[in-house]
Amino acid sequence: MRIGIVCYPTFGGSGVLATELGKALADKGHKVHFITYQQPVRLNVFNTNIFYHEVRVPTYPLFDYPPYEVALASTMVDVIMNYDLDLLHVHYAIPHASAAYMAKQIVLNKTGRNVPVITTLHGTDITLVGRDKTYEPVVTFSINESDAITAVSENLKTETYKSFAIKKEIEVITNFVDVSRFNKKPIDAFKKVIAPNGEKVLIHASNFRKVKRVGDVVKVLAEVKKYMPAKLLMVGDGPERPMAEELARELGVIDSISFVGKQEQMEEILAVSDIFLLPSEYESFGLAALEAMAARVVVISTNAGGLSEINIQGETGFLANVGDVAAMSDFAIALLKNEERLEIMKEKAYKKALEFDIKNIVPQYEKLYNRYCRMTPCI
Ligand code: GMT
Fold it and tell me: What ranges in the chain are assigned the alpha helix state H?
């Protein structure tokens, strides 16, 4: 099949998922065309089945806001027509679903061909940004106009029906992880650098936006450190980072934290970690937590959104109410004191991650594509 994938190229979960999906489809022989404004961060492989089309947004003194959506739709039209795409799969509704609708209509008008558009909803496109009155009518319209709609968790499907007048079936195809990539033995030298005295290692990875509550991560570390030596790795970057650093100084734990910025080799960092902290106010799914589980890291998270669909209370980790730092800290301390239980839970986290292995989920997308593909065979 010839598939167009549209996503954000940044470190966000939707871009990571879309890129990993595209790479997996290319490995299976499909021709995959990424359409976005920058090379996606995880698109770091050479594969003759992968194509990248950059959306250029020409500026003009008149434009305070260069019209990205118009440039994106025009690039989609260009790629659909020149590479004879069988379908477009857009990740994150805003503005990808509406741009895809526009591109579809233009191609229909020019050639009479009806190119299927599949929209995958990821999270904040529905729960935060999309609900804003400024965007809502366009989001509702373009989701309804998509040929197929998928959501990355049952929770996100429910939230979408609650917030938008969606008239179509939303299919849940969960996020996935390439377990073989994360199933790594810790590198001793690396562990020594991070925890030179055998300290326990806590880790958090996100885009440090308000919804992630990174302050709670720092507070948990401060509590844990009252009982045992521990280190915290803060992976990623974003608007809440200065606040997290300031809080760490106030609580006297700054020397136990490494802010390591955006990292591509997550599997190596996770391999030396014990507990992944995700105290988010909302997570449609929590892809970062799933990657941690695939690396045998126990997850302590909130019970918000779809997190309980991957993190199982008392089995793969622990779930607390949003903001309940005391409960998250108590659990971390009890677990880190009990080596045997820690090892059992690490193994259970890994087993749970296997359910979401890339090998199980990618065929679900292929099945969906086949349903909407042109009547002429697409493979
Ligand atoms: O807000 C983020 O965490 C980034 C955002 C994105 O779309 O890039 O992540 C959302 O999509 C991820 C991939 O499907 C999910 O794993 C995250 O849970 C979701 N984030 C939220 O719902 C806050």
Answer: 13-27, 68-83, 93-111, 124-127, 136-145, 154-163, 179-182, 188-194, 214-224, 241-250, 266-271, 287-294, 325-337, 339-355, 358-372
